[in-house]
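Quick one:
INPUT:
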């Protein structure tokens, strides 16, 4: 197999043993049609040299990559809409491989739709093709916006007709592979606590600490929780700055590295609306846009509760109490990054955050969320462009005056980014639900993948223009 020298297998989670998961086999699919391969992500782990046939063999039939032991369905529990569920685990996916990236991070290749496992709970273990398309689009958009996210690595159509209650059926099937920093969830610790295994928790803490938070000293469980709190605060702030609603912030959908993953009923805000929800079944708005910080903090407290089996409560509580300050600090950083300006200090940065939110609130549906950041990216360097653009009439009044004053206090950060051709367009790249449905409609009606491929190309161009990946 023509892997590059960058390919470095390191299946560390598999070494934990059978207490943490079950060896499984992938389903045998009627067909394997490659619909998407992320060569940019593959290059980071030395897999970009695979031929399409080899790609399908490893990510459609799941022949193990060199040095990998074979699929492992991971065990976990979790609170789902704040109700504890001890009947969870990888029900339609597995950990396929672990390997070192070119930047030395340990990364996971995990699947979705790869067949039934001991955790399937009567489900068919499959993924709809539409669900796979939606996950690719979500991950690419979030990556472009500088949000810590798993990356859609592969999407292969599998030739089955699936029955689903929430979309027209029968519908097409697929298997997705995602590349992410870790699949160790808050619920992985909850499961160990539920079955009364402090030894498993201690092993998990040391495993995750050494691999993902090595700055924390060995044996420092509160320090490990503090690192997870900080990473989670950064992730949540980036969601808010992106106008993103995850939709299902259960404790099994949050991990120890603060990386967004598992995109089901996600949405991007069309305009400022604190109560905006992504999931039709979120009838009480538990995971609404503005409640996402609350939801993440609640989930962190459940992780802290599991860790009480191996650490004193007081230092764990102190670690949890760091979420609020960390979130506000990270929110300022995220909004400055989205506006393309440099920090001027806490007070001025907070003023810009507050006036930006006030401007979005007042502008509402006429202004929309994403266009404000597009129009004013680079601060005063974009003034003429913004005022002459399609929303020029929106930029007046007291809220705008306060926003402009706060923005113009800040110097542009890397103003050369404004030379990118994207900023000559009248409208930004958005990912609203109607646009997603239009991409899927072309695939569903005529097997036309052109809009999907064109959208991915534009998202990657937008990511280059924003330059937010390392912010």
């Amino acid at each position: 197999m023509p892997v590059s020298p960058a390919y470095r297998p390191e299946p560390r989670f598999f070494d934990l043993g059978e207490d943490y998961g079950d060896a499984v086999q992938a389903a045998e699919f009627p067909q394997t049609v490659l619909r998407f391969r992320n060569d940019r992500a593959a290059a980071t782990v030395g897999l970009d040299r695979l031929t399409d046939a080899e790609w399908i063999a490893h990510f459609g039939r799941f022949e193990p990559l060199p040095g990998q032991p074979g699929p492992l369905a991971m065990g976990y529990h979790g609170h789902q809409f704040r109700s504890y569920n001890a009947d969870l685990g990888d029900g339609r996916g597995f950990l396929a491989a672990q390997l070192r990236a070119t930047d030395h991070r340990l990364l996971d290749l995990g699947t979705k739709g790869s067949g039934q496992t001991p955790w399937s709970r009567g489900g068919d273990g499959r993924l709809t093709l539409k669900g796979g398309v939606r996950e690719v689009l979500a991950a690419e958009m979030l990556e472009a916006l500088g949000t810590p996210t798993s990356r859609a690595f592969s999407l292969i159509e599998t030739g089955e007709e699936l029955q689903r209650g929430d979309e027209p059926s029968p519908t097409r099937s697929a298997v997705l592979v995602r590349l992410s920093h870790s699949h160790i969830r808050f619920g992985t610790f909850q499961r160990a606590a539920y079955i009364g295994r402090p030894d498993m928790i201690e092993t998990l803490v040391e495993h995750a600490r050494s691999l993902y938070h090595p700055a924390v000293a060995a044996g420092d469980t509160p320090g490990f929780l503090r690192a997870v709190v900080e990473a989670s605060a950064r992730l949540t702030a980036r969601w808010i700055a992106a106008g993103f609603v995850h939709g299902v912030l259960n404790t099994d959908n949050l991990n120890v590295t603060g990386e967004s993953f598992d995109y089901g009923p996600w949405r991007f805000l069309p305009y400022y609306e604190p109560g905006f929800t992504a999931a039709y079944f979120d009838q009480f708005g538990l995971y609404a846009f503005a409640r996402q910080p609350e939801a993440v903090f609640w989930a962190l407290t459940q992780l802290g509760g599991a860790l009480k089996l191996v650490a004193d409560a007081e230092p764990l509580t102190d670690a949890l109490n760091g979420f609020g300050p960390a979130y506000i600090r990270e929110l300022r950083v995220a909004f400055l990054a989205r506006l393309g300006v440099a920090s001027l200090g806490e007070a001025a940065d907070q003023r810009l955050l507050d006036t930006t939110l006030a401007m979005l609130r007042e502008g509402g549906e006429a202004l929309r969320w994403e266009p404000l950041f597009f129009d004013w990216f680079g601060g005063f360097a974009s003034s003429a462009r913004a005022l002459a653009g399609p929303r020029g009439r929106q930029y007046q009044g007291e809220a705008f005056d306060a926003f402009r004053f706060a923005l113009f206090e800040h110097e542009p950060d890397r103003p050369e980014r404004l030379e990118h051709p994207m900023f000559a367009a009248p409208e930004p790249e958005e990912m609203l639900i109607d646009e997603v449905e239009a991409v899927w409609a072309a695939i569903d009606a005529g097997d036309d993948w052109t809009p999907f491929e064109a959208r991915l190309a534009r998202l990657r161009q937008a990511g280059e223009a924003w330059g937010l990946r390392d912010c």
